[in-house]
Description:
Helix content is 14%, strand content 51%.
Amino acid sequence: MCHFFNSSENRFIFKFSILVTILLLSLTVTFAQETDTIIPVKKSPEELLKNVVVNTFKGEGFNFFEDNFTGHWVGFDFGFNALMKEDYTGYDLKFMDNDLLLSYSFNLNLFQKSFGLQRNRNNLGVVTGIGFQMQDYRLKDTVTISKDENGVIQPQIFHLGDHQKSKLTMFSVMVPLLLEYQVPINNYKNRLYFSGGMYFAYRIGSYTKIKYRTDHSEKLKITGNYALNDFRYGIMFRTGYRWINLFAHYELTPLFEENLGPEMSPFTFGVTIVRF
């Protein structure tokens, strides 16, 4: 060891090694202090954040906490009327054997109220509202209906001219009470929906109409209640996605009052032409 320090060259190498070691230790300590030390900033949060740009989401997406549940009731429906479970006990003629493709239903659903049933989502809820319904039942060309002296519905056969047509028309106010479930597809605005429940209707008018032709076109319109049930209720189902919307409802009350006409239950199905 002593011989090593006797040489001037060796002493230089030793001193240089010690200097490099001290320098490396100093750099290590400095780097550790810089990475581990928390330097307080004496500025307010408002001043620090004033230049930070926060992008606001403005798309047509889905917000679990702010978007409200909206059902599918308002719109204009067009459909066809059928008569189910027909029982003509006591009659000789099935006079309400209507032509399905010429028995139209028109529904104008103007008012709607939706109630969401979820706290952090909006795809399940209850839908109600008010709508107006017109139902046409196209009868056989030579048959209409009237009430006898006891108020019982009876068929009437007529021959007034050429090209005869006969129908029964009803006007009603309808109130639905539906449970609706929606399934988002592609984005949260376009949704497949299923709704079903009860509906309640009240008849506000009805008439029979006969159209025939002699020298010119003639119409014979007779207003009356025709022993039709004023208050009706039934089950309703609606489904759709975007511009394709279908509906169906089946009445649980018979068309005519008990013992005043043949037993039958109306069934209506169709499409929503326009959604409001």
